[in-house]
């Protein structure tokens, strides 16, 4: 490299400077020398080498003590390059007749440290010019230049908005420069999260280079321009009993910490943090809610609807009524929206609402009136009616001859609630029959039946008793030899009575009339003659000797 037409050596600060003597060694060389020139032009000799004795001598120059080295080809090396080494050095070759000189210019370069942004502002405020920070790059030679960047783009000075001042200070002991660039900046709201950095540009042996600082992000403060109110949790529906949190927020930085909340029914705003909590809300909480900054500026509002559902069942709880009575039932609904109502009886959904103009035993049960608001999750109400239908025992007795003609079935059909207890007795003797069979008790009805084979006429009594009343009914039963089909046997579990086939009924009546005509003359005679043995015949079927004795005595009295 040439500087002003002279040979130049570029060196890095701290490295070794190597300067070759660019003269051709002449014949008759006596010695070679190196010198440098002072600013005033006077020479300072620093190194000598004899061509004959091969010895090297270094002059006593404090700045170059122990730093010089002169090779056989008269190349001069200077260790630990300094800024002060930037001089004009001259190589001299001397003969008896001539002195040849060749100058060399030394340039020293030092890369600055990576720039840092120091004295950073804690935060920036919009509409206010303030010191953002200082970019500092140290130990540079020659001096460098500092440029500020925002989001990768150069920040140009703008009056009262971007003010940049650059200071360069040289260390007198080393000759190195420190560059300090301060930035005063007026931010806008858009500068939130902006990245600020600085770059130092400098010259090195190979040309211009740059080093960039680490980017810095500043907290930008700006005032609130809008207030927003929210209802938490963010559910589309609110029902009675829910907890509601009103949250008010402002879009400033830092955000406001206190607000005024305006609640329906309250004349003045309630000062609170950014949240206002309402627990177990009722329907009267429906209305418009507002919030504002504490200076009553920038207000926002929202409307809250608290959904409700009321159910009134009349009557409800446990209700006891008598069979045949009327019972009006009503399920009244009051709600914030159209509600769905349905009835359940004994865990089975009903198709229609219950209505009782004349209560029957099958009407008893557990009734539930339930209603829901389908649009409001979890809003459901139900009430229960436990209906008890009571009735005094009612008895109907039937008899028939079994198909084998060997026995007769006597049935006592009983209705009543609570379930009546049934007892069979033989009229006259008072004997109790313990061999009765009962059907299942369903809807207040059941049957008790016995099977007998009386050889003579007998009268049976069915007694049904519950907490309400005791009912007694008797039935005359003819001897087994006389068929009887006056009533069919109850064959259903629900004790509903079926009428026998009409043809069989007519045949039975005709046969009965014919038999009555044929035996009318002898019935009384048979009755008198065998009255003493009637008890014995019944006892044969019922298995009770003591009862037969009583029946015989009663028959004897009747004969007398």
Automatic annotation (TrEMBL):
CDD domains associated with the record: Ig, IgC1
Record keywords: Adaptive immunity, Cell adhesion, Cell membrane, Cell projection, Disulfide bond, Glycoprotein, Immunity, Immunoglobulin domain, Membrane, Repeat, Transmembrane, Transmembrane helix
Family matches, as InterPro entries: CD80_C2-set, Ig-like_dom, Ig-like_dom_sf, Ig-like_fold, Ig_sub, Ig_V-set, Surface_Rcpt/Adhesion_Mol
Segments passing through the bilayer: 505-527
SUPFAM superfamilies: Immunoglobulin
GO cellular component, one term: dendrite
Membrane-related topology note: Single-pass type I membrane protein
GO BP annotations, alphabetical order: adaptive immune response; cell adhesion
Entry-linked PROSITE patterns: IG_LIKE
Localization: Cell membrane; Cell projection, Axon; Cell projection, Dendrite
Pfam families documented for this protein: C2-set_2, Ig_2, Ig_3
Domain of life where this protein originates: Eukaryota
Domain Ig-like: 103-212, 223-305, 324-386, 393-473
Protein name listed in UniProt: CD166 antigen
Species in which this protein is naturally found: Sula dactylatra (Masked booby)
Gene: Alcam
